[in-house]
Design brief:
Blueprint lengths: L7 E4 L5 E4 L10 E5 L3 H12 L4 E5 L2 H10 L4 E5 L7 H10 L8 E5 L4 H10 L3 E4 L4 H15 L11 E5 L2 E5 L3 H106 L6 H24 L8 E4 H9 L8 E4 L5 E5 L3 H15 L6 E9 L2 E8 L24 H10 L4 E4 L8 E6 L4 E3 L2
Parallel strand pairs: 3-4, 3-5, 5-6, 6-7, 11-13
Antiparallel strand pairs: 1-2, 8-9, 10-12, 12-17, 13-14, 14-16, 15-16
Helix pairs in contact: 2-3, 3-4, 6-7, 8-9, 9-10
Length: 463
């Protein structure tokens, strides 16, 4: 069985037809005229009333409301006070002064709330007030109160009029004591609600103020911590600058000492090599040739070591810069003996890498290493540029003998190899300054292939 109540029409003594619900189910419902110039507010009120089963009619101003009342008499009028042209007070007066509509309850809906508003409402004949903003339950309670009064005659309805002066304005009041009581009760309830809202707002303000005080204390503490951190950082920077200056002075002295030592060792080697040559000429003994050969080889190794120390002390001294790859290969190629081997530079123009300025030494050492260890079959050395995901790879490959699998990592160790064994180790250290790695991935017997992997932020295109 459906729980929906069955309504039936009822006609009151004034001929107004409204809907009446069965006893104990819903409220009696009828037509309520809503007078509101704001469509949003009107629709909000309409939704509240129709959710309770009331039928509603809308009017946008006082004139439309009077025309509507003349066509279909409502059982109640809810009107805004502030409207263009005829305001709510005047509309209420017009309704109450007309004998045909004087008994229609009028509720004033307003944001205004002061003693003069209440007096003006009483003087205009209003039956009640609804203070904006409102909740649906409050609207329903006011309508129920008005409807309950309609069922009980007002014994004081014919009391004589009296005058009230507020703010230098005199108002004529003709309302009964019951109507005055209802309006005062309505305004009192609104005052209680407003007071409660003020208390809630005051509590929220106090809570916010406490949070603000706490936040302010935290900010002060943070500011002090920041100040202390800044002082510590300044001291740390000062200490770092002092250490850097000391290191720079020490490095300068070490470089000077290294330069003097290399110069003196080279002079002594020159003398030693001269005496060995004289001795070799004075003692032409074939049985001693092997010893002279070992002496010459040792002298050559010492010379290479001294050259290595000169190159090594330059690594990382200067700031890394952007350098054109194709230009680096062309510069390294100038050190190759003509017709010794063919250098193919397939590096695209306009590609730059961020590296130590000594990277040109890497290109030269790779060419020199290929010529030294490629064997008699080597004829071509090729530089190219490849992509691998986000990285880029600089490739140096040749058609020589290649590198044995067990030696692919050893060749980058210092001292490994047939000659000095310093070339490839220097290459790795120069490239590592800006995060560029180098490995050998060639196929033995078909040539060496050195791959230099450049991170995404260490290469760029200029064209």
């Amino acid at each position: 069985m459906s729980d929906t109540p069955v309504f039936h029409n009822v006609t009151d003594s004034n001929g107004v037809v409204y809907r009446k619900a069965p006893h104990g189910s819903q409220k009696d419902t009828g037509t309520i005229l809503i007078v509101e110039d704001s469509r949003t507010q009107a629709d909000y009120l309409r939704a509240i009333l129709e959710s309770e089963g009331y039928h509603t009619v809308l009017a946008m101003n006082g004139c439309e409301a009077l025309e509507q009342i003349a066509v279909v008499r409502p059982m109640m009028v809810l009107t805004d006070i502030i409207m263009p042209g005829m305001d709510g007070y005047e509309l209420c007066c017009r309704i109450k002064q007309d004998k045909k509509s004087s008994d229609i309850p009028v509720i004033l809906v307003t944001r205004l709330f002061n003693p003069e508003d209440v007096i003006k409402g009483l003087a205009s004949g209003a039956d009640d007030f609804i203070i904006k903003p409102f909740e649906p339950d409050y609207i329903h309670s006011r309508i129920r109160a008005i409807l309950s009064h309609l069922e009980k005659p007002d014994p004081d309805e014919l009391l004589p009029v009296f005058e009230v002066t507020v703010a230098n304005t005199t108002y004529v009041i003709s309302a009964s004591r019951l109507r005055i009581f209802n309006i005062l009760l309505s305004t009192y309830e609104a005052a209680i609600n407003n007071n409660q809202e003020l208390q809630d707002a005051h509590e929220q303000l106090n809570a916010f103020n406490e949070e603000l005080v706490t936040s302010n204390e935290q900010l002060v503490m943070a500011a002090n911590d920041l100040k202390n951190s800044n002082l510590a950082l300044e001291q740390e920077n000062a200490e770092r600058k002092r250490v850097e200056k000391a290191l720079a002075e020490a490095n300068k002295k070490l470089n000077l000492l290294s330069s003097i030592t290399r110069h003196d060792i080279n002079n002594q080697l020159l003398i030693l090599n001269g005496y060995v040559e004289l001795l070799h000429g004075e003692i032409p003994n074939p049985s001693l040739e092997e010893y002279f050969s070992h002496i010459a080889k040792a002298s050559s190794q010492i010379t290479a070591m001294i050259r290595f120390t000169k190159d090594y002390e330059k690594i990382g001294i200067r700031v890394p810069v952007w350098q054109d790859l194709s230009a680096l290969a062309n510069s390294a190629e100038k050190g190759v003996i003509p017709d010794q081997v063919t250098i193919k530079n397939d590096l695209p123009p306009g590609i730059e890498v961020f590296a130590d300025p000594l990277i040109v030494k890497v290109f030269f050492n790779l060419i020199d290493n290929a010529i030294r260890h490629g064997g008699d079959r080597i004829a071509t050395i090729r530089f190219s540029f490849e992509a691998c995901n986000a990285d880029r790879i600089i490739v140096c490959e040749d058609d020589g003998a290649g590198v044995a699998p067990e030696d692919k990592e050893k060749i980058f160790s210092r001292g490994f190899g047939k000659n000095t064994g310093f070339g490839l180790s220097i290459c790795r250290e120069i490239l590592d300054i800006t995060g560029i790695s180098i490995t050998e991935n060639g196929e033995p017997g078909k040539g060496a292939r050195f791959e230099m992997v450049v991170p995404p932020d260490k290469f760029q295109k200029t064209v």
